[in-house]
DNA sequence: CCCGTGTGAGACAAAAGCGTCTCACGTGGT
DNA sequence: ACCACGTGAGACGCTTTTGTCTCACACGGG
């Protein structure tokens, strides 16, 4: 009976990442609920996006925790992180393109926390000699987001099997980030 | 006096790629022109997106031509292509997330032409033994788009210097795509 | 069984955005 | 100097979207 808030947000993210101009009515129908009910849970479009942001940050942070990125070799930590990030992929794919969140003063500090942890991971890899040092941690961080988004999009589109998600991303990202013996 | 159509489209892409819900008025102001003038050149939002699509396809195809991707080693061809793609980066970044273009029957065949040429390049690299074969050409193609977009965003945001654009993307993409001796 | 809670559907006004028009202005060419 | 053209600003009616409200209904617990 009662609406599952998280499930609604997930459906909203899936739709909005494909059609950012979708109306509240379309979001509601995509979530399988009425527009009135959607409005009962989220005051408006802005509140909806904020809720998506919050959920995304929580899931991404949970992924960082679950992957125990501080432990073991950095490349394996990245591999675990990519796998753990898959549930949050569509959320990330949408929110990364939602610049409204980053302009203005009320910017959610969760993003900088995420960035900091991610950057720290890449920096650790560089200091341990696992990652090449000619690619800045900030760029690796950015590329991580981008590849997660591309992966989510490719999976949703059927171009990549969902099972290959982690492998494709991790292999591409690590292959580029890992210092290779030649060169 | 007369408005530079291409420049308007470029400004529109830069804005829309970070705020897909931007109004025509915002687009006009971002381009430094009045809303009426924007309307004189593009009948509506849809026409604007179509024009962006057309320009993007033209520029991407020009980049493919300019990079002469059929010549020389595949990895060097990719490197040339990344460099040649920089002017079209923000356009690509926006349009890749605009799925409205891909659903429906009036889909521009330019995209499949681009995809085909890009896929052929990666496939050639695999057959020549330059690229690893466990990452599908389709995924490499997708990742290429994604990294171009991430790079454009990182540059626009000041996280990466514009001069490093090509290097960062090509190194990350190729490092992952190139078969390394270990493993 | 019955009542309370949460829901879907629809009506409704307000707001936002769009597309068109007019008009004054400034620039560039004649 | 003059004229023509393209522009910016703003007004206007229209459509779409939004946010709120009401009401009937289904479910679930007491």
TrEMBL record, chains A, B:
The keyword Transcription applies. Gene3D superfamilies: Tetracycline Repressor, domain 2. The keyword Transcription regulation applies. Keywords: DNA-binding, Transcription, Transcription regulation. It holds the Pfam family TetR_N. Residues 23-42 bind DNA. Residues 2-60 form the HTH tetR-type domain. InterPro entries: Homeodomain-like_sf, HTH-type_TetR-like_transc_reg, HTH_TetR, Tet_transcr_reg_TetR-rel_C_sf. This is TetR/AcrR family transcriptional regulator.
